[in-house]
Please model this.
Amino acid sequence: MTETAGTPVPEGGPDARLRVRFCPSPTGNPHVGLARTALFNWAFARHHGGNVVFRIEDTDATRDTEESYQLLLDLMRWLGLDWDEGPEVGGPHAPYRQSQRFDIYADIAARLQAAEQAYHCYCSPEELDTRRDQARAEGRPPGYDGYCRALSAAQVSAYRDKGRQPVLRLRMPDDTITFHDLVRGEISFQSEHVPDFVLVRGNGHPLYTLVNPVDDALMGITHVLRGEDLLSSTPRQIALYDALGAIGVGDGTPPVFGHLPYVMGEGNRKLSKRDPESNLLAYRDRGFLPEGLLNYLALLGWAIAEDRDIFSLAEMVVAFRIERVNPNPARFDLKKCEAINAAHLRLLSTDDLAERMVPFLQSAQLLGAEVTEDQLATLRAAAPLAQERMVTLAEAVPMLGFLFVTDDRFRVDADDQAKVLTDDGLRVVQAAYDVLSGLADWSTEAIEQALRARLVEQMGLKPRHAFGPVRVAVTGRRISPPLFESVELLGRERTLARLQDVIATDPR
Ligand code: GLU
Ligand code: ZN
Model:
């Protein structure tokens, strides 16, 4: 006999009964793979008009931290992936932190045992090892052999007298378990490869194997989209669903599963938590736009169209089909991620971009807590200049810092100074000072005209040699937004002061 679980999602019409969950464990720094899983669940639910449940799987007190929990919430909020039930928003199945649900798990474990869906196993680790080795030697599957499935009362009391603390195991069905994976199609697991597994430890602590399906059942989860690494736990969860149905927990219908492709990092290895590019927080700190990062994460297994890379979250929601997720491993490519972010930066309105740059300029102490109208006006005027050249918002600091830095803190980059402000360079700066100090109209056009006439035409310099030294003197760096616009924005007084400064402080 074969058990078949799961049917494909029907297309069309909002389905408010559709419920997905995002259920990370709060250990360490949240990583991009986690955000990819959250995104796919979210887009799937929103596409179908269903609900997103955010559940925190924090039953492992040795690894879970409050800090990681807070960071998860922060980063989900930053990404703009909202949830209909979960921490902070509550919901009919609260609490949504598993660490607050131990009573529920203890009760269900006891009921599973009473209904003989699960049983106590008293085997010691040494006994399990010995029998495993034996099974291997005889060419049998090495998993748990069901030794304690039918212990007599006398055997049980003998174990108890020895002080053994039993674990609780699920009695797995003998049938092959087959289900339809939304990404991978039909998948079967033969029962001999799925032994009776542990639900509750000897000390009474419930394991992921129990609590994850229990909560999926209690919370009415209809679809589980998660990483391929969890595929091997799916037959166990389907069996547990059955058992739960038998004791009246949930309706016994397992959720429909879809396993998302692996994300590979450098050198064809799975992207791991230790890889620097997997640290989700670092993207926010570097000034990635949530829409840029999400757009990139969407491409890890999905595509909106064959020749289209840039799209919005709203467009993804409309177009997202889980059946169109590619089961093959996806490669994480930071360069592409950056390029996509840069494309999203260019799509922002000037005001929006200016506003998003503010916190970065503030944390570099280029802007204070209170941003003045003048500063905001300068930032808005400068935003289009930076926009074409930026990859992330944090680049506002080196790119536009020269406009906001106080005169006493302004420094010319030492490297750039040595390379560009040579004797020749300083002669150029002097000439620029002479011509600009007499300029009546302080506009980009007038500035450009004056500098070109004097430095290029009269002095016969190539543009690079003409404008490079001026750029370094005025902005402090060889790389800056367009020069004439920058000079206009900086203003006459500050420009002239900076030009004069490099001439006066020249160490040679
Ligand atoms: N808490 C589990 C994890 O982070 C969830 C796995 C699942 O989606 O079933 O791996
Ligand atoms: Zn046993």
In short: Residues 121-123, 147-148 surround zinc ion (ligand 2) (CB under 6 Å).
